[in-house]
User: What shape does this take?
Amino acid sequence: MNAGPRIEREKTTVERMIHMYCASHHSSPLCNTCEELLQYAHKRLGLCVFGERKSTCGKCPIHCYKPHYKQQIKQVMRYAGPRMIVKYPVLAVHHLLDGLKPAPKHPKHSKPSRTQD
Assistant: This one.
């Protein structure tokens, strides 16, 4: 399981986004559906093959969310993303900066580096 500072910040960001979405759309601090999505998102982040080198999930070459959860998280991000800059500006700026980084190559598809002798 990944537990470095980058992954933990991503978990916090997605948690805040889901809470914002749920409070607005379900009039609840965290309904069962959103709690399930949050647990799923945390699990996927914990298992991310890129770990601390990851880009934002939107730029990732591996789409590890099941279609149902992918649809849900897209709705959450569309709603909460623009609102994050006002409510959680530090997390929002970190997320924006992370989004500027190029997506890493998949470890299984990366070519070994050649060294000159």
In short: The two ends are 37 Å apart (CA to CA). The first helix runs from residue 5 to 25. The chain has four helices and no strands.
